[in-house]
């Protein structure tokens, strides 16, 4: 059974609709005792890192997610959920979950000084697989397009955890994997057929 972590950070409905269209059994909860019964967890989110960490810390979900990941249980972060699994975010100078070493920086820091690219990075971008790719992309076409909306980007300490990047004036880490922790900076649930394949692979595939 798939558990969706509900911590008042948005975009859960779109994930629920995607799983329902795939006929995947799931539940959403903000209660540790319920989420602990799941086989795999999806950790979505949009919005502000500082507010989200306040919600996770006050509910005890922060420690629960750290323990879940440390026990090598499958976890999938999406968008904001892909960022706050790292140590620190420049957004609000926020101490995050620290599941994977690294930080979150504003995209502008990584663009050429006179870049005219708009921030947030918004719209469809194709991916380039890195470091052998990720098994969640099984059955997905080469250079697939996925939907992004974000102003901050992942900067991991260990670059080998980057499994795909998107080009937007710089190489933006788009897919991260470390052990059984996976993270998508883009929104697979809003990315059509190819995005649904990724969700199905996480929920039902061999990890």
Strand content: 25-35%
Please state the structural category. Answer: alpha/beta
Shape descriptor reads globular
Rg for CA atoms: 16 Å
Sheet of most strands: 9 strands, mixed
Strand order of the largest sheet: 2-1-3-4-13-12-11-8-9
- Note the run of SSEs as H and E: EHEHEHHEHEEEEEEEEEH
Low-pLDDT residue spans: none
Number of strands: 13
Distance from N terminus to C terminus (CA atoms, Å) equals 15 Å
Number of helices: 6
Indicate the percent of residues in helices: 25-40%
What is the mean pLDDT?
Answer: 96
Characterise the protein shown here.
There is one protein chain. This protein is an alpha/beta fold. It is 25% helix and 30% strand. It contains 6 helices and 13 strands. The chain has helices at 12-21, 32-35, 49-59, 61-70, 80-83, 192-204; strands spanning 2-5, 26-29, 40-43, 75-78, 88-89, 94-95, 102-106, 121-129, 145-150, 152-156, 162-167, 171-178, 181-184. A 9-stranded mixed beta sheet has the order 2-1-3-4-13-12-11-8-9. Strands 6-5-7-10 form a 4-stranded mixed beta sheet, with helices on one face. Strand 11 and strand 12 form a beta hairpin. The longest helix has 13 residues, at 192-204. It is globular. The two termini are 15 Å apart. The relative contact order is 0.18. The mean pLDDT is 96.
């Amino acid at each position: 059974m798939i558990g969706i972590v509900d911590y008042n950070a948005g975009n859960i409905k779109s994930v629920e609709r995607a799983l329902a269209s795939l006929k995947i059994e799931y539940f959403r909860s903000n209660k540790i005792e319920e989420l602990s019964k799941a086989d795999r967890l999806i950790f979505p989110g949009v919005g502000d890192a500082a507010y989200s960490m306040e919600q996770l810390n006050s509910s005890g979900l922060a420690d629960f997610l750290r323990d879940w990941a440390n026990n090598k249980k499958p976890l999938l972060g999406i968008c904001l959920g892909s960022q706050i699994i790292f140590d620190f975010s420049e957004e609000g100078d926020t101490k995050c979950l620290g599941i994977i070493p690294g930080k979150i920086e504003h995209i502008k820091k990584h663009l050429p000084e006179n870049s005219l690219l708009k921030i947030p990075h918004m719209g469809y971008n194709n991916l380039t697989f890195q470091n052998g790719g990720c098994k969640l992309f099984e059955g997905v076409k080469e250079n697939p397009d996925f939907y992004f909306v974000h102003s901050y980007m992942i900067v991991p300490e260990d670059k080998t955890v980057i499994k795909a990047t998107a080009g937007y004036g710089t190489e933006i880490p788009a897919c991260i994997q470390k052990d059984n922790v996976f993270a998508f900076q883009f929104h697979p649930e809003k990315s059509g057929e190819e995005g649904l394949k990724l969700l199905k692979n996480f929920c039902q595939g061999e990890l």
